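Hi all, long-time lurker, first post. I run a small reading group and we've been trying to get comfortable going from sequence to structure in the token notation. Rather than ask abstract questions, I figured I'd post a concrete chain and ask someone more experienced to write out its structure so we can walk through it together at our next meeting. Sequence below, copied exactly:
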Amino acid sequence: MKLLNFIIIRLTFCLIIGILLAHYAVIKLMAILYCCIVLLIILATALIVTKRHYNQPVWFGVLVYLTTICIGCLVSSVHEQANFKNHYTKYDTKNNDSIPIIRLRVREVLKSSLYHDKYIVDVSQLNGKTVFGKSLLNIEKDSNLFPLQVDNIYLVNTEFKTINEPKNPHQFNYKNYLSKAYIYDQLYAKHSELFIVDTTKHSYYGYASLLRTRINNNLKNYNFTEDELSIINALLLGQRRNLSTAIYDDYKDAGAIHILAVSGLHIGIVLLLLNYLFKPLDYFKNGNYIKIISILILLWSYAVIAGLSASVIRAVTMFSIVAIAMHIKRPTNVFNTLAISMFILLLFKPNFIFDVGFQLSYLAVFAIVIIQPIIYKLWIAKFQIINFFWKIFTVTLAAQIGVIPISLFYFHQFPGLFIISNLVIIPCLGVILGFGFIIIIFSLLNILPVFLASTYSWIIYLMNSFVGWISNQETFLFKNISFDLDKMLMSYLLISMLILFVKQKTFRSIIYVLATILFIQGYSIFENYNSKTNRFFIFNKSRHTVLGIKKGKQLQLHHNLASIENENLISNFTVREMINTVKYDTIKHIYSLQNKKVLVVDSLGVYKIKSFKPDIILLRNSPKINLSRLIDSLKPELLICDGSNYKTYQARWSTTCEVKKIPFHRTSEKGVFIYSF
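-- Answer (accepted) --
Happy to help. Here is the structure in token form:
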């Protein structure tokens, strides 16, 4: 059975191409709209002309695929809110003398940072004009005040600020991440600057937040610890913002982080529980229809309570289609079911294609469907209990094979004991979820017995303790694995060829596997040859200076940090650049880079050197110098200032260089400086 023989899979593939095309190419919305209308008219005409033919001609199929690609472009452009005239970004407030008055509604509460509480807000008015769009709101932390509530409407007198891009290579691009959620700017304010307009709940977000708050307030009356409450919120209510860093890291290192997100695993268990609960309806006339409608209503109600996060919407959509397929009692194919759910999701949420959870989820499910039967047939257990755990083992292993390449690409680590953690947790997850729903319902009704709450608290404690023990086995946790996009794609190519070989066992499939291995080896040789280029880096680090010289797979770091081993700046760089050896040294005054000389001028302000003429000058630690005189004296090709300098100095130096017509690189604005030699 060839996967691409399913029409819906081909159409989903075309839809994805269209979404990617609209994202990476600059195409006007109206042009895409007209193109879609023309293609749909042609397609409708072709359908009328060819409806008498049993086999559609090839050109008809090509026309269908082109139309689907165009629809992908259209849905992506339509969902891009900044394309519309009444989006708040279309109103220029930066050139006005007065600070704008913004009316906003709190939509979602995010995990707080060190100094700010963070929220996603819907902007509805700007200086009295009706607008729309989402923004990130940062409120200064104040322990004496309660956090903002979802659906509350406020007026605030502040300005939109640009979300900064990372200034150093291979750092997490928060601006790009937020733009995928159609958030392009951020606001900063204090609690005292917010003027409340309305506290009435208007949306399902607000009602769901109220229900979650009530659940948490009721559960706090029992002996649940903060960590146990955070696990209950993550497992059952889809809220992970209160998870402590220690708990999150434990689950991540144990390979069980998927447990803490309401996803396909959780919704699948919920569907089984609901199916069992409503089973008596099958004995009534039209009970089957009542059953499926009730299940769908409850699934989507649960999705709303869980905050309608990307993982929840994805899982509920997928299992809604599975539930419908189960109850219409017609033969269905799991690939079609998955493709239909993906197609529907991307039609309404095209940016899901860039969501890591979306990618991991579907890759895991496809791997389970394709690979698990192959592994399961390798050994048939005689006893039922052994067969039960063998099935869990094969499902876990198949899912892990499907997500290993993309996990290494995004997270650069591999939990070696993931099998053990999943073999223990997954069989118990149904009990934990079912028991948890009973705890929540009883707490809402104020009839929760203390012994039930204590028992559930003890179960959560045991699970946390087990996961903590697994994560502490650091020998089996492989971190800082260098794995780029090319390696990920080649890994999936190799996995696909191996699956083809196992299923077909033909001479051609052997040739495909060997050709793939040779291609990977050839690429590795080419990559090693290209890595011989030497590069000099001046990183951007606030109040400090960090310089790097990369020679092949070795890195020399010159810095004035108290400790650099735990710096994300360096760890991310060494992993992504596939560095094998790192050496540390103090900052020198002169660097010789083949045919270029770099002079470092620090707080002492010494720069009069007669022995050589520097091509590049780095200013660090705010030297008190006359920059105009320095330029006239040394006549450098380029001036650089890093993050260790005062901002007032940097602004003054930038003006001087502009007058002198000398290139000026400011790492706090332009990011890392890179010179290849």
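A couple of things your group might point at:
The radius of gyration is 29 Å.
The chain has six domains: 3-79, 88-202, 210-355+427-478, 356-416, 485-530, 535-676.
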